[in-house]
Structure formats: structure tokens, C-alpha cells
């Protein structure tokens, strides 16, 4: 995974620089998410790495399925990635682009996993607390995982806060066994 990130980073940075220069962050974000979705498709992924196809043929196959959804700059990115045999990096390029965009906009995506549905008041209170702690705007989404029994697990980038009952029981079991 780290190798994919290392390979994808220059392309994501170049796309981000282009998007900033043209004031087109949202358009690039949309284009990269479309490209990433198609590149991640199992059938199309086989074509994108098929050794008997030329770079132009691989790029053309991807651009054909995307149709008219892409701007010219995104099509150029596809051509460069194909030329360098890197079309399979598109999902990672998209993720890195979104991280760069979030840094610029001073936002963070937070995923809260709970055992039960959270009320709007609970979500708002948690979002405000995280905004104060992380010192940036918070875009929150939630998931339900009944195996947590109670509490929550909060994921914000590299930060993970495990306040679940299952997590606390696991820590207690480790402490008792050591």
C-alpha cells in the first residue's frame, strides 16, 4: 500500500496543482472519482494492465467507458498514466487528491462507528467537539456496528479513538493476561 501511495503521489500533486491553478478543484475531484471508480472495476482493470495492449489502447479503453464526463486536462492525465503504465494507480491518485483538497480547505472526514443510531443532537455535539479538538471543519458520516455493544469508534484520517465497550473489554482482557 505504501508503494502505491509513493507512486501515485506525484500524479495527485500534479493534478492538484493544475486544479488550483485553474480554480477547478471540484471539477477535478469529480473527474478523478469517475476515473477511480472505472479503474477499480475488475473487468476494466484487466484491460488497463493487459501486456498486449499499447498505452494508447489502454487509455482509449478507459476514456471510452468514461464518455464525455471528463475535461481535457483529466484526459491528458489518463494519457500520461497510460504512457507510464500507471493507470492502475487512479484510485490511489483520487484518494491523495482528496486529502490535498481537504488540507487546503482545512476539513477532515470523520467516520463514527456506533452500536446504535446516533441522534442529531449527539452528532452535532460530537462534531463540535471534534472541530474544537482537530481545529478544522468536520464532515461526519456514521456507521452502525452492533458488535461494538456500546460506545463509539471515531476515525479521522490517521487518528482513531476507540471508545467502544468492545475495545475497553479487549484492553481489560489484555491487562489481566499480562
From TrEMBL:
<dbReference type="Pfam" id="PF00213">
    <property type="entry name" value="OSCP"/>
</dbReference>
<keyword id="KW-0375">Hydrogen ion transport</keyword>
<dbReference type="InterPro" id="IPR000711">
    <property type="entry name" value="ATPase_OSCP/dsu"/>
</dbReference>
<comment type="function">
    <text>This protein is part of the stalk that links CF(0) to CF(1). It either transmits conformational changes from CF(0) to CF(1) or is implicated in proton conduction.</text>
</comment>
<comment type="similarity">
    <text>Belongs to the ATPase delta chain family.</text>
</comment>
<keyword id="KW-0813">Transport</keyword>
<dbReference type="InterPro" id="IPR026015">
    <property type="entry name" value="ATP_synth_OSCP/delta_N_sf"/>
</dbReference>
<dbReference type="InterPro" id="IPR020781">
    <property type="entry name" value="ATPase_OSCP/d_CS"/>
</dbReference>
<protein>
    <recommendedName>
        <fullName>ATP synthase subunit delta</fullName>
    </recommendedName>
</protein>
<keyword id="KW-0066">ATP synthesis</keyword>
<keyword id="KW-0472">Membrane</keyword>
<comment type="function">
    <text>F(1)F(0) ATP synthase produces ATP from ADP in the presence of a proton or sodium gradient. F-type ATPases consist of two structural domains, F(1) containing the extramembraneous catalytic core and F(0) containing the membrane proton channel, linked together by a central stalk and a peripheral stalk. During catalysis, ATP synthesis in the catalytic domain of F(1) is coupled via a rotary mechanism of the central stalk subunits to proton translocation.</text>
</comment>
<keyword id="KW-0406">Ion transport</keyword>
<keyword id="KW-0139">CF(1)</keyword>
<keyword id="KW-1003">Cell membrane</keyword>
